[in-house]
Amino acid sequence: MMINEAEDEEKWLAEGIAGIQHNAFYMHRALDSNNLREALKYSAQMLSELRTSKLSPHKYYDLYMRAFDELRKLEIFFKDEGKHGVSVVDLYELVQHAGNILPRLYLLCTVGSVYIKSKEAPAKEVLKDLVEMCHAVQHPLRGLFVRSYLAQISRDKLPDIGSEYEGDDGTVMDAVEFVLQNFTEMNKLWVRMQHQGPGRVREKQEKERNELRDLVGKNLHVLSQIEGVDLEMYKETVLPRVLEQVVNCKDDLSQYYLMDCIIQVFPDEYHLQTLETLLGACPQLQPTVDIKTVLSRLMDRLSNYAASSADVLPEFLQVEAFGKLSNAIGKVIETQVDMPAVGAITLYVSLLTFTLRVHPDRLDYVDLVLGACVKKLSNIPKLDDSRATKQVVALLSAPLEKYNDIVTALTLSNYPRVMDHLDNGTNKVMAMVIIQSIMKNNTCISTADKLDEDDFKDEQNSVARLIHMLYNNEPEEMLKIICTVRKHTMAGGPKRLPFTVPSLVFSALRLVRQLQGQEGDIVGEEVPATPKKIFQLLTQIIEDLSTVPSPELALRLSLQCAEAANDGDLEHVAYEFFTQAFVLYEEEIADSKAQVTAIHLIVGTLQRMNVFGVENRDTLTHKATGYSARLLKKPDQCRAVYACSHLFWVDDQDGVKDGERVLLCLKRALRIANAAQQMANVARGSSGPVTLFVEILNKYLYFFEKGNQQITGAAIQGLIELINTEKQSDSATPDSASDAFLASTMRYIQFQRQKGGIMGEKFESIKL
User: Fold this and answer.
1) Has the keyword Cytoplasm been applied to this entry (predicted)?
2) Considering the chain, what percentage of its residues have pLDDT values greater than 70?
3) What is the tens place of the pLDDT at every residue in 643-671?
4) I want to staple 669 with a disulfide (CB 3.0 to 4.6 A). Which of 241, 318, 329, 642 is the partner?
5) What is the spatial distance between Cα 711 and Cα 666, in angstroms, rounded to a whole number?
6) Of 300, 386, 371, 299, whose CA–CA distance to 341 is shortest?
7) Residue 125 to residues 102, 103, 169, 378, 654: CA-CA distances in angstroms?
8) Domains in the chain: boundaries
9) Is residue 529 pLDDT above 90, yes or no?
10) In the predicted model, what is the mean pLDDT of residues 11-39?
């Protein structure tokens, strides 16, 4: 069913893109002939493709970007009154006669941008007109994107301090009012998406809603960039209006994301001076909002602000930051009656961390935090939640780490009272921590949040080292040792396996390499030691590890085994381990960063393999390139895809030099890099640095040097021109690192040109 839905969506997207391309073709003809009415007719038909309700947000975004590119060309045409012969005032009236509301609004926003630029009407009036007319689109997805387009075309035309539109065209307050109104309506549309569809469909829509959050959040980013929003305006207008919308929407996804946005985009000084207002909203949030993370991030920002300069510390005292944070945490814990103990203790750990950074000399504040924790734990004689216990250990360890003086920590009256709530085992851990602090002459413990794990990790690392010490020159006896160790290791439980299994695997691989070249079973031996037998054992061990779960480690070990099988010329075994790695990647590894690391490990290992025949290598290579192109972030996609080009050109393998497929990989990477630039331009108003293009250029140069006939000097020269064009565009973001990287690359090309010989002649074809 899911496959059919995906196929249908791809078909609908293709139809929409075809409709845009068809009408854009006739629109361009009309633009070239300066025929305004025909241009408006076909542009409206083109924009009607955005009325679809059949696409997911991800696919709708692809369709929107196609239309967005065409609207930029249409805007250029509208700016030149000499071409179409209609004043911008009349043009603004004319586009309001478009048949359907959605195309009409996109055209109005496009003409409105030109209208503001012409200054024939005050910017504030045009902006107010546009933001109110967008009320006509109440479909959540379509409404979000049309308002996102309005935000995009207006961000450089707001009547801000120092802008050309300030004065009679409007004031900073007009700019703020426009952005706030657009933000409010976009959030309402975003929240309404949660009410569409029950059960499994609703879960899918929550995921899709999460993909759209940046469309709403970028309004807050625009607000933070308005020069005229000083502390007074932020305190009196911006923050109250934003928080009003956050609280009233009563949606946990929206509330969590927007609170985090507020904390991240506005200055630290503003947070400090409006602390009471910001914290006052926290108890009003939905009980399901992860408020402890929100507050922890706020306290981290304020702590870093305090650490940035001693001059700002009096401000913390002036606004009574500690008292306000302490009261807010108390109210949140009191309001959210179902909050588990671990959540409350986590909040107190964050507050204590803040206190030790901002007020290290106030032992009374430290004791107050510990006392609040004691009060929360008063109904729990002994903690039996391991996560809560871990947080209590972190709470008690923080003063030891800060003061490097056990006597100071033990003078806190609530310190032993917190320890009373620990079970016997954890009390022993804390006792050892205190004793070690004394015996190590006040040595600071560097990882307070993992103190309860230290002894366990030391123990398991010792076991792992012991496994490496178990060795016998006789293969059969060594295999018996490995089997015995495996039996005891697997009985150790899931927590121990990630520490001990790698040592067991590498001991087995050492035996495999010792036996390389040996074929068949050893006659007369009770446990024949052959590479195939050991690889069967390794497969079982890694499968056990993958159920812990520890999929990233299981994948790494699978690839190590595949390399060992490659060295032993065991194609079938190597293929099975690669299959195991791909299954782990597809079914178990969900974190996007872990996926990026995993795909690069897979590609790097596959490149080094020389055991596979054409069919098996093609199958694995196809899988690797497919997964690379489906990574979450465009830059990660781009880097993984161009890394796959090395799978088709390996110097030490005569049969693997497919220049055409190398070029296909690099071209695909280039398309992805271009899409990443466009997405950055839509999301942030700037296309970002050209780093990805320069990285791809270096890949082109590598294969050019290696003799790939498909990579020509003309192609490299075209890529250099593309990079220079991107750098010079209005939306480019200056980046010294990218510039240095490009300059270094150009120096290398020049060096090769001047070098002479065959390589020098090749590089002469690149015209700089």
Assistant:
1) yes
2) 92
3) 999 999 987 756 688 899 999 999 999 99
4) 642
5) 10
6) 386
7) 21, 21, 8, 60, 70
8) 1-121, 123-266, 268-430, 444-518+527-549
9) no
10) 92
Question: In the structure encoding, which two tokens stand for residue 502, read together?
Answer: 């790698």
pLDDT band of residue 579 (cuts 50, 70, 90) is very high
- Residue 378, amino acid: S
Q: What pairs with residue 732 in β-bridges? A: 688
The answer to whether the CB of 26 falls within 8 A of the CB of 35 is: no
Angle at which helix 140-154 crosses helix 101-118, to 10 degrees, equals: 10
The candidate with the shortest Cα–Cα distance to 370, out of 401, 411, 431, is: 411
13/62 Cα distance (integer angstroms): 8
CA atoms 373, 377, 382, 386: torsion sign: negative
Local structure of residue 312 (DSSP, 8 states): G
Predicted pLDDT at 140:
92
Q: What whole-number distance in Å separates Cα of residue 436 and Cα of residue 443?
A: 9
Q: What is the mean pLDDT of residues 158-180?
A: 90
For 377, the 3-state DSSP assignment is coil
Closest CA to 345 of 307, 318, 372: 372
d(CA 725, CA 732) in angstroms, rounded, equals 10
Whole-Å CA distances, 755 to 662, 741, 752:
26, 21, 5
Report yes or no on whether pTM surpasses 0.70: no
Decide if pLDDT at 444 tops 60.
no
- Evaluated on CA atoms 86, 91, 94, 98, the torsion sign reads positive
The rounded percent of the chain whose pLDDT value lies above 90 is: 47
At residue 701, the pLDDT reads 92
| Helix, strand, coil tally for the chain in percent (to 5) | 75, 0, 25
Can you count the helices (H) and strands (E) in the chain? Answer: 39, 0
Average pLDDT, the chain: 86
- How many whole angstroms separate alpha carbon 765 and alpha carbon 713? 5
Six-digit token pair at 585?
A: 């990647």
